[in-house]
Amino acid sequence: MKKILLLGGSAQQIVAIKTAKRHGYYTVLCDFLPDNPGQYEADKFYLVSTTDKEAVLKVAIEEKIDGVLAYASDPAAPTAAYVAEKLGLPTNPFESVETLCNKDKFRLFLKENGFNTPTAMGYADKNVDTRMFNLPVIIKPVDSSGSKGATVLRSWDGLNKALDFAFSFSRSHRIIIEEFIEKKHEYLIGGDIFVFNGKVILWGLLNCHRDNNVNSLVPVGKSYPLMLEDSDVQSVEDTLQKMVDDLGLRFGSANVELVVDRNNKVWPIDVGPRAGGNMIPDLLGMIFGVDVVEMAVLTAMGKEIDAQVKRGIPFFATHNLHSSQNGYYKTIEFSAELEKYIIKKCF
Fold first, then answer.
1. DSSP labels, 252-290
2. HSE of 344 in the Cβ direction (CA atoms, 13 Å)?
């Protein structure tokens, strides 16, 4: 029986474990949390941090695994590529994956390869020269995901607080400051793409919804179809395919965030070498009639997949329940008008 090593056993990652088992693979799981729910689904569990490359490599060698997958996890993605590269297993280049997972390196990559990129500088301390930036700016850790530790400043008055906030979420104690690009469309472009044999076969580009009254940087939902002009959509797709080419990506999901500015220029904000969170793969499965998790598992095991993805079906959206204040969740009530359109609820 072939073995797959899965990095991360959170509630959102269980679907990858179940999908691998459905295909007859023996599942080996690594996670540093002793109470992760994935351990009860996997065939074998190791209490090992998914960011500890050498420890995970040791597990992989001991278990004689045939493929590695860091499903929906930015921090674990470089580890998966490192282990697979060491063992000669299917993978994207470790250097490219590490570039995508480090905002310092990603900005340098964009600049060196002719992509639009804002003025940016990384720092390991709070000694910041504000004269090199035009406001507004965004300050964030170089190595976090999900907008953790990020602040948009439209005045330098909050600099010290924003720096402390960013450093508190950085594992490497390094942050980046970059000029904030103002978008021409109402929504930031987000979602997932899927690459197979070096070509993007799934364009899961979505409108990113934010609740500005709570946190303007954290998505509270996605919607489809993408509300962009056709010419802008083509520019976004050309930008992402060029990035895949320049990085030498061969297969797998990539979670993307881009902005089109008032001059019709495309600005890549973030590209993570993994599936998106907040059940984006589930949403894309409904829109495009594909099993994105299955595609991720099979390609990680070196298997062929059907590269023909049908056109998306409008109209779909997700909403993440959230609150503007702290407290205890009691219940949620749905209006009769809304209820008839709800396909899936996940509490």
1. EEEEEEEEEBTTS-EEEEEEESS--STTHHHHHHHHHS-
2. 11
Single out the residue of 60, 56, 51, 26 nearest to residue 41, CA to CA.
26
- Per residue in 226-242, pLDDT (tens digit) is 999 999 999 999 999 99
Positive or negative, the CA dihedral 236, 242, 247, 253 is positive
Cα atoms in the Cβ-side hemisphere of radius 13 Å centred on 303: 17
| pLDDT score of 259 | 94
d(CA 163, CA 106): 20
pLDDT-based confidence at residue 114 (cuts at 50, 70, 90): very high
Tell me if 25 sits within 8 A of 2, measured CB to CB. yes
Count of beta carbons in the 10 Å neighbourhood of residue 343? 10
C-alpha to C-alpha distance for 186 and 69, rounded to whole angstroms: 35
Confidence band for 146, pLDDT divided at 50, 70 and 90: low
pLDDT tens for 190-210 read 999 999 999 999 999 999 999
Q: Are 284 and 317 in contact (CB under 8 A)?
A: no
Buried b (16+ CB within 10 A) or exposed e, 187-225: bbbbbbbbbbeeebbbbbbbbbbbeeeeeebbbbbbbbe
